[in-house]
Design brief:
Blueprint lengths: L25 E7 L6 H15 L4 E8 L5 H11 L3 E6 L4 H11 L4 E5 L10 H10 L4 E5 L6 E3 L2 H17 L11 E5 H7 L10 H11 L4 E5 L1 E3 L8 H21 L27 H27 L4 H24 L8 H29 L5 H27 L13 H6 L36 H4 L15
Parallel strand pairs: 1-2, 1-4, 2-3, 5-8, 6-9
Antiparallel strand pairs: 4-7, 5-7
């Protein structure tokens, strides 16, 4: 949708013209299934927009999801007529499957996709990918639910979209606002390690990718968009909603059990001041204290309930030992996952064993306090016992946090030698710009799903902040054929 000027208002904003040149920086994927009617005007309109406004070289990839009409022929015609257009065909349906295949094989440092109907105003494309080119963000999404977005669609789709967003926030604690808008981008180096963790091959692919990225601490940039609903959309709402809910359950269960190795895709930002080593400042102390206090409060309540239950059938010492043992196991597991961010099953047994040692110290403190109380009075009141136990547990809690932080769940970075940030190492020597060559579709490797494993990148991509240089009208590099 284009925002035209009207009487009494400021004129519509226009991009400054820029000439593309060099190896593609952006690869825009258009997944299609039986879109013979809309494909050609979509690609030509997108190509014209990018050629006029995008300051870097680009590529448009048509990803055909096993179309049965003339969509493949239309795609081949466009690829033959427009040098920046390529086509790729899958023999299986699934938007997620198409994006995974094309993104995994693309050599462009910034990967994006948009729906063929171009419901989203293309003026949002450059703001979408700019934070990824600059290195500021890892992923970027268009949001129809942002306050400044302008959306034209029926009440049914509006209700479904907002209900789905509430489900994601309530079940998966998602903080991004719009998971299903067909307007997203990701850095290639991030995609190489993130995509192998995404299981869905259909419409839930977007949501799963965003949830995992957010849980891993990656930065997601949101762009408000102008969006007009396509009344001829072929999306089956009921089936898609059912599949999405199944995906929410699957991802939620995986996150709860810690079966996803999200720690492998945590990004060391390097030049972020918050990540620099500061002397005499413990790393993550404030966040860990808050998490430990929350877990401790719940554990104390759980312990008191257990003690009251066990005390009804046994003596105070046995009831205290049993309640403390059960609550200690639950406390160690909760602090392991929530406070200190340890995921997966690796080291879980050792952590529980160390937690039991900490439990023994707490048992000694609380048992000693009970013994002192029984020595002071032969039949103390139940309320007095609880008060003494609360005081003893408070003392044990402080010691438990210190032992957890320094012994059970130490920060592995504290034992590593200091390293020079990547950007500092690059700046230590004179910069030699890379040789820029035009993209030749005939020499490109055929698309296919690369055999990536979680946490491993097939070919590390260097920092685009240094390598990608904006094109100016007076640039006349003889090596540039364009």
């Amino acid at each position: 949708m284009r925002t035209d000027s009207s009487p009494g208002t400021l004129p519509a904003r226009e991009h400054l013209p820029a000439a593309p040149a060099g190896t593609p920086v952006l690869d825009v994927v258009i997944p299609v299934y039986n879109e013979e009617k809309d494909l050609q005007p979509c690609v030509r309109r997108l190509h014209e927009h990018l050629e006029r406004t995008f300051p870097y070289a680009f590529r448009i990839t048509i990803a055909d999801n096993a179309s049965t009409d003339t969509t493949p022929q239309v795609a081949r015609t466009l690829a033959a007529e427009i040098p920046e257009v390529t086509t790729f065909r899958l023999e299986q349906k699934g938007r997620g499957r198409a994006l995974r295949a094309v993104w995994s094989a693309s050599d462009a440092p910034v990967l994006a996709y948009m729906d063929v109907d171009l419901s989203t105003d293309l003026n949002a494309l450059l703001p979408l990918v700019a934070p990824l080119i600059s290195g500021h963000s890892d992923l970027a999404i268009g949001s129809r639910l942002a306050r400044s977005s302008r959306v034209v669609r029926g009440p049914k789709r509006e209700f479904i979209s907002r209900a789905y967003n509430l489900i994601l926030r309530g079940s998966l604690q998602a903080r991004f606002s719009d998971a299903q808008c067909g307007f997203k981008a990701i850095r290639r180096d991030v995609a190489q390690v993130l995509l192998p963790l995404v299981e869905d091959t259909g419409w839930f692919f977007d949501t799963e990718m965003l949830v995992l990225a957010e849980r891993a601490g990656l930065r997601i940039h949101e762009v408000p968009v102008d969006w007009v609903d396509d009344p001829d959309s072929t999306v089956h709402i009921v089936r898609t909603a059912t599949d999405d809910l199944k995906g929410v359950w699957r991802v939620g269960r995986a996150l709860a059990t810690g079966s996803l190795p999200l720690d492998r895709i945590a990004r060391p930002f390097g030049d972020d001041p918050r990540d620099r080593d500061l002397e005499e400042v413990p790393k993550g102390l404030a966040r860990q204290l808050v998490g430990f206090c929350v877990v401790g409060a719940l554990s104390t309540l759980f312990y008191l309930l257990l003690y009251s239950g066990f005390r009804a059938v046994t003596g105070s010492q046995i009831a205290n030992a049993l309640a403390l043992l059960v609550s200690a196991v639950a406390n160690t597991a909760a602090n392991r996952r929530l406070t200190f961010g340890v995921r997966g099953r690796g080291g879980a047994v050792r952590h529980q064993a160390q937690g039991l040692v900490v439990f023994g110290i707490g048992l000694a403190l609380t048992s000693g306090s009970l013994a002192a109380l029984n020595a002071a009075t032969s039949e103390p009141a139940h309320s007095t016992e609880l008060a003494v136990l609360i005081a003893a547990n408070l003392a044990a809690t402080v010691l438990r946090f210190l032992l957890f932080r320094a012994w059970v769940f130490p920060d592995p970075r504290e034992d590593e030698p200091p390293q020079v940030a990547p950007h500092a190492a690059k700046c230590a020597v004179p910069y030699d710009p890379p040789r820029v060559t035009p993209y030749d579709p005939s020499r490109a490797a055929p698309y296919g799903t690369a055999p990536f494993r979680a946490g491993e990148a097939a070919e590390p991509w260097r920092d685009t902040t240094v390598q990608l240089l904006p094109v100016r009208p007076h640039d006349t590099d003889a090596r540039n054929s364009r």
